[in-house]
Amino acid sequence: MRTMTMASDHVAKPTDPDGLILEAWGQGFLLGSLLILAAITVANMRAGVLLHKLILLELVLAMGHGTFIFPHEPVYGWYLSVTAIGLNISWALHNVIAWMKNRPFLSRKVSRFYIVTVVLCFPYWCLEIYANFAYFNNLNRIFLHTRHLEPLFRDPWWVFTTLSLFWTIKREYSFGLWEIIKISPRFGIMLAAMILSIAFIIVDTCSVLNAFQSVLPTGIEPFWKLSSVFKCLCDTVVLDDFKTALDHMRRHWMERKNRDIFVSPSITPNPSPRAYRARGDIESAGSPGWPDLPSVYSPTKQSGRLRYRDNTESLESRNGDEITRSPTCLVNSERPRGIPSPESSFENRHPMREDIPDIPLQRM
């Protein structure tokens, strides 16, 4: 995992310049990446969602292991071992998070088998914590044997989750991978991070098993750090479970597709004022004069003529104690150009005579 040895059997902080630079770069990359991912998680997480809290906890627990390059002997071995505890818990928690995200797509039997096998790995992580402490404090060399088993107890669940997600997208959803990237670049980033994490898992496993000749300093390799960062990126870039994210994307895709099919350019809203006036003329075509005259204008006792007010007032006439109120005006007081004044139009059609006696209007 983090084996750093000198030429002798004594395990200590690396002194070779190449090894020291490589390990310092790897730890800086791990810590910086996790800090940024934690900030993104805090900015996007919702209160009361357990999954979001577990993702943030996963990131925080792994941060400490990106700082053990600074202490010197004898603090070095103790500090490394303590921060490794948080890292191992973070790895186990990542598998639980992967189960929670993928659970809606799993059958009950598969889901139970998944989480039970994750829990059964906890004793190994306890052994790994002790082996790490004993090795870097020069007590025994058990860690050299348990380290080879680390990929087996850490990564199979993540590989299964990745393959399951790709298969579910292909089988149950009506869009392909390229359409997913166009609809949601965030989801496309998550899929790319999944592929990269598995690629570095394979490289790290080959390095641990000495499957290929490494030119790196003895016991120092950054591949597990790269794999861990990409796995955490998958958890952070899409905080919700996979089904919720995919269903939301499918609804958005269907709405956009339906809008493209049923929305005709001829009825697309035109923001031009001229087009607005033209639509008003079309809507009022065939209506003689002002369409709402009966509800807007009422004859009053005062001079027997119509009195016009805007839509914030009512019409009234007074004759001693007699008061008549007309309904509130329903349209704006501004008349379109070309329509005659309702007062003049009313007078032309119904000329008033002074000899007609006044008749009191009853309350409406």
UniProtKB/TrEMBL annotation:
Keyword Membrane attributed: yes
TM ranges: 24-43, 50-70, 76-93, 113-136, 185-203
Biased composition (Basic and acidic residues): 307-324, 346-356
Region (Disordered) location: 281-364
Keywords recorded for this protein, A-Z: Membrane, Transmembrane, Transmembrane helix
Domain of life per record: Eukaryota
PANTHER family on file: AN04G07800
Protein name stated in the entry: Uncharacterized protein
Protein's organism: Penicillium salamii
